[in-house]
Design goal:
Layout: H1 3-17, H2 32-41, E1 45-48, H3 57-68, E2 72-75, H4 83-86, E3 92-93, H5 108-113, H6 122-133
Parallel strand pairs: 1-2
Antiparallel strand pairs: 2-3
Length: 149
């Protein structure tokens, strides 16, 4: 695994391991499905059912969302994937940690992704990241294979 991917994985694990938060939509989600549901409950997801080309069009739309601080797009109809046949198996969430236009919750998606309240300020988010960087990464245990002595 490349060094940068390992570093990101360890940082994310350290942030989540040191996070204690109250239950409810103001807290960090425990799974991606829960995170998506919370975004939908807060009306921060725009579901796009029109057919979209996943190679160029999807990336362009996502870039515009980041540039204009719009709602997170959820693409449900990807070109080349039959929705009826695959039962919407292939969906893509673009800009999952974008900036929100909700007053007082500009960084809510970023805050939720690292275990803070939705109302956390940019300063609190940076402080949390810096605090976690100082801690040792959690140990990684691999399963022994039959070839191991």
């Amino acid at each position: 695994m490349p060094l940068i991917q390992r570093s990101i994985r360890h940082l994310s694990a350290r942030i989540l391991a040191t996070t204690s938060h109250p239950q409810g939509h103001k807290s960090a989600a425990k799974s991606f499905c829960q995170y998506l549901q919370e975004l939908q409950d807060e009306n921060d997801v725009l579901t796009i059912t029109k057919e979209v080309d996943p190679h160029l069009e999807l990336g362009s739309i996502t870039r515009r969302v980041y540039e204009n601080d719009e709602k997170t797009p959820l693409f449900e109809n990807l070109k080349g994937h039959d929705r009826a046949k695959n039962n919407s198996l292939f969906r893509i969430l673009g800009a999952p940690v974008g900036i929100s236009k909700v007053p007082g919750q500009k960084f809510d998606q970023i805050a939720k992704s690292i275990g803070l309240l939705s109302t956390a300020s940019g300063q609190v988010i940076i402080q949390k990241i810096n605090d976690v960087k100082k801690k040792a990464p959690p140990p990684y245990y691999r399963k022994k294979s039959p070839q191991d002595p």
